[in-house]
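Extended Data, record Integrase catalytic domain-containing protein
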Amino acid sequence: MANGVRKVNHPWTDGQVERMNCTIKDATAKRYHYDSHDQLRDHLQLFVDAYNHARRLRTLRGLTLYEFICQVWTKEPERFRLNPSHHTRDHTLAPSSASASAPFKPERQRNQDTSSY
């Protein structure tokens, strides 16, 4: 395979997009059953927000993505058009009517009892 076919410094050169898609799929569609697309959309948004605000990444030296962006903003605000701290979502507000009517149902439980293996 010729190396000139792929472009340098793009996500498809090292599988970043595919890895993230697998992470999202494993955390949503493979674990839960959704009665509607709205439920999937709501859960996907919750997952992405949790990932961005709670998941500590080694490549960012243990910071969350949100913490890293805020840290860069304080050092180099000229790189940003908007203050990133103003773009957080409040999930304590009332959920949409689709997700309020039925909770997410686990389709299968993973690794509940490892002693039987």
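Summary. The longest strand covers residues 32-33.
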